[in-house]
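Sequence in, structure out.
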Amino acid sequence: MQNATFEAEIALKIARGVSVASALVIFAFFSFAFVDPFFHKANPQEFIFFRVIVITIALAVLMLSVSPLRALPWVMRLLGFLIVTDAGYGVSRLTLMTGGVQSPYWTMLMLTFFGGSMVLRFSAFEAFFIYALQVVIYAFVMLNGGESFTHPAFLTSVGGITVALAVTVTGNWYIRKLERVDFELRKSLAVANERLQRSVGELEYQNQQTELKHLQDKLWLAHDLHDTVGAQLSQICVIVENDREIPRVHLGVLAHAALENVRNFAHILKGEEKIDSLRAQLLKVKQSFVALGRYEISFDEPLEEITIEAFSLLHIERILAEWTANIIRHSHARRIAFGVRERREVILLWFFQDRPAFTWRGVAERGGLKGIAERARQIGAQAQIRSHREGALFLLRIKNKQGDNG
């Protein structure tokens, strides 16, 4: 495929070269007509008639080279052979007309070779074939015109033209090689540019992803502030607004917990996040409910610490904060029970309240439940709310990775 592309490029250059070569032949045979009278070797009309024939052929080739036929590579190669042969035979014939092998005109054949190699991008084989044919034509015209093949001038002219042939073929081979190298370099440069553009695109994409993650982190931080500190401040407001006398120690517990969470957020911003164990988190939930003084609390405390990875603990902490905030703000419950049970494949975290609530299957598009659903999804957990004994039961099922490894 790549070689075909190179050949197509060469074909285009040959098509352009045929036009240029034709124009040069027309110019050369017209301009050198002013030298003919100085030879005194032939009838002037004969010179004019022959030059008209050569120029007419060159003009026809020029017209064909700019026609729709230029799209056909094999046609352009034939026209290239024709224009070289037109010039070669023209020089050979004029050499015979102006003195034969003694005429200086034969040197113009060397000029034809060199000029052709510059404008016509033939391969080495094609160049050898077409230019060797011109040597044969020259020798035939001279010998057919009465020249002796042993004449020193004939041997000199043929020898000079043959050397020009060798130089021309070598030049065509070297130029084609340079064009191949140039093509490969441009191809490599195009590939490098494409890779560079792709790399720049990937870098831009990575920067966009980094910026998006930063925005998501900010959004999560805002949610966390709402779910934790906001929930604790809500509890403090409930205590302050409660008509009953509540010991100041409960208020102090909540205020201390809120302050600790603020400090935790400061650690998060500095990359030094502190995450409590699940047991410690549930004890804090119990303390916050007790501090309110309006609930009958039953906590099924685990006998042993349940091992959960830090990432999951972080999201569980936020889920607990959001759910306790929902109970405080929206529930009129008097009795609350909660706890955790560990099984081989799942860790079950549950909350019971003695007031009915809506049924929820763990999908939400807005509000606090959306935050719970999203955090549960992040850790591969499932959250739901269902009716239970004239109350409501909140369940969070967390995959037990320790049990899986066991």
